Structure formats: structure tokens, C-alpha cells
Amino acid sequence: MKQFKILFAYLLCICLSVSCSDSDETIVYSTPLRTVITGMDYGDGVLVVGHKSPDCDAVLSAMTYASLLQRMGINAEARVAGKVICEPRYVLQEAGIEAPAILDDAAGQNIIMTDHSEFAQAANGMSSARILHIIDHHGTGSVTTAQPLFYYALPVGSTCTIIASMYEELGEKPTATEARLMLSGILSDTDNLTTTTTTATDRRLYEWLLQQSDLSDVETYYAAMRKARTSFDGMTDEDILFSDYKEYEIEGYKVGIGNVFASDELGVEELCQRMRQIMPAVRTQQDLDMLFMMLGDRQANVTHIPICGDGAREAAEAGFGASANSDGCIVTTYISSRKAQFLPAITEGIRKSNF
After folding, report:
1. pLDDT at site 355
2. Handedness of CA 218, 220, 224, 229 (dihedral sign)
3. Distance from CA of residue 282 to its chain's centroid?
4. pLDDT number for residue 79
5. pLDDT given for residue 267 in this prediction
6. Chain center to CA of 272
7. Rounded to the nearest 10 degrees, how much is the dihedral formed by the CA atoms of 279, 284, 285, 287?
8. Which of the listed CATH numbers 3.10.310.20, 3.30.70.1130, 3.30.300.20, 3.50.50.60 matches domain 237-353?
9. What digits encode the pLDDT tens for the residues 142-165?
């Protein structure tokens, strides 16, 4: 029933076009995406927010979608579901923009969710919010609503790609700053168009946004973004773990998955050791059955996976086809995507383990 509701909502909102032509002219009729969006009841206004542990795609998709809605006369404001650090902080500083305010409690609020559709990843109180839109590039999550929902999801590498496609569809030319922010979201989530999740749509809109933006040297800019992503100055080990962290319900188990990249200052072996020391306390704090970390080393083309929790070792070994070493880590070929590679492997490993 949940899948039917989501599919119905999505089909209502897809833009279709029909052309009628004769020898003299072509008339194009478009299903009015703008009318669908503006026809909804937003009350006194709506808050647009990404997931907890906000990364670039979560922060920047919320900000640029709020801007798009404002152009349509909707009272929309961007929020974040946690402190903005590392890479998104750098992007906003370079753009000369302050980070949105933190949404401490979504209960009772009119909400638009970007870059997620899981209550476990959402701002506190989201299950008691009035959720009006979901804009996402992941699989369908646990969120259900009592009222009609605008659900817009595409199989692309970044939610900012979807937002950019909506600007284009609606004939709204982004400002140089809006284009820079959406481009930054795509750069971050696709690792500059190199991840397995990158699509032709990402590449096309990347070029479109680049033309609209004020970025003259995107390669140098992306290199600075990557450096900011792995700069942990002033951060505790727990801050590092939660810098890119998501929770999932998998086969009845509550599972946390963090994603951190090694750097010249903090190598993957030291990073693995430090994460293993705090993972038991984090698992208890978050009330998790299992906790995994993706510790990626691009230069060495490996990912270290420290594990924590009953059944976590069996699930990881079954999912990745490798045995944990004496340090309690599984070492495998570099994993570029939590969504497309890590999560399916862990899900399959949990199913195979049959606890």
C-alpha cells in the first residue's frame, strides 16, 4: 500500500508533453508542474530541510529548492538538520552565504524533505510533521503521510541534479550563486562525476550549471572541496564519525553507516583504530543493532570497514566476501557509494547471515 501511494503521488507530478502539429505550427501542451506545486496548501509557510549529518547535497538541495519555491510565490525557508561542517561549510563560505538555521524540532511544521525519505535520517520530530514534498535520489524510505504528497525521485547521482532539472523544466534560470551551489552538490555526491551512480543526466546538468555559475576553474574548486571534506581540525572522533552518517532499518535491524575519507593528515589505519574505539559507545547511544564505517582511501584504492554489534561481523563478511582482520576491520576494494554499493552489500549480508 505504501509503494502504491508513493507511485500514485509521483505519477501525478511527472511532467508530460504532447505535441500537435500541422504544416504551419507546432503547439506544445505541458502538464503544469508549476501548477501542481503552487496549488498545494503551505499554510503560513514551509521549511525545506535535508537529513541529519548534513552533507553538501542535503544542505545545498534544501537551499536551492527553497529559492525555487520562493520564485513561485511560496513562503519557503531552508533549514539544516544539524551543524554544518567540513565540505558544505567550505562551499558556503566560498559563496559568501551563511548556513541555514538548524531545525531542532520538525513536529507540527510544514516540511519539505530533500535528499532523504527515512525517518531515521530526518530531523527530530519529523514523524509528527506535515510533510508536503520529498525530493530525493535514493530508494523509497520509511516516510509515509496521511495527506497527498508531492514525491519527486530520479535515479541520478545527486539530489541537486533533480533540483537543477526542475529549474530547467520550469524555465527558471538560476543565478550564478544558485548554479554554484547546485553544481557543488553534484560535485560532492558524484566525486566530480566519477562515482558509479553518475548518470548522463548528472553530466548534462553539470555542464548547464557550470555555464550559469561564476566558477572559472572547477577542477581547482573541487580539489579544495575534497580537502575540506577530510579536514578534521578541531573535531572530536565522534564529530568525525557523525560528519557523514545515516541510519537504516534493514530486515528489522537498526543499522548505522558512517562514511569518512582518509587524508594526508589522518591515514586510514589510524582512522580505523580511532573509530573502533568509539563505535561501541556510539552504538549504545544511537540504540543500534549494528554500526559500520566506510573509511575510504582513494589513493590506495581501498576501503576499511570497522564493525560493531551482534551479527555485524557475519553480515559484513557475507556481504563483501572477505574476512575481518585482527583489528576487526574488513578491507576491500575502494567503495565510492554508500547508496549503490555499501548498503546493498550489507543488506544482502544480513539476509544471508539469517541470525
Report:
1. 62
2. positive
3. 22
4. 99
5. 86
6. 24
7. 120
8. 3.10.310.20
9. 999 988 899 999 999 999 999 999
Q: What would the grid cell of residue 273 be?
A: 583504530
Predicted TM-score (pTM) of this structure: 0.83
- Is 332 in contact with 303 (CB distance < 8 Å)? yes
Mean pLDDT of 184-204: 97
73: left (phi over 0), alpha (psi -120 to 50) or beta: left
Strands, sheet with 110-114, edge to edge from the N-terminal-most edge strand? 76-79, 46-49, 110-114, 130-136, 150-153
**What are the grid coordinates assigned to 178, written together?**
544558485
Tens digits of residue pLDDT in 291-308:
999 999 988 999 999 999
Task: Return the SS3 of 265.
Answer: coil
Closest of 84, 12, 115 to residue 229, by C-alpha:
84
**CATH for the stretch 2-224:** 3.90.1640.10
Contact 138, 117 (CB under 8 A): yes
C-alpha cell recorded at residue 281: 559507545
Query: How far is the C-alpha of 2 from the C-alpha of 168, rounded, in Å?
Result: 30
**What letters, b where the CB count within 10 A reaches 16 and e where it falls short, cover 99-121?**
bbeebeebeebbbbbbbbbbbbb
Cell of 216: 572559472
Residue 37: pLDDT band with limits 50, 70, 90: very high
Locate 287 and state its grid cell: 540504540
Comparing 2-224 with 237-353, is the CATH topology the same?
no
Report how far apart, in Å, the C-alpha atoms of 28 and of each of 12, 18, 39, 93 are: 19, 6, 22, 42
> CA 198 to CA 333: how far, in whole Å?
19
Q: Are 136 and 6 in contact (CB under 8 A)?
A: no
CB burial of residue 94 (10 Å; 0-12, 13-18, 19+): middle
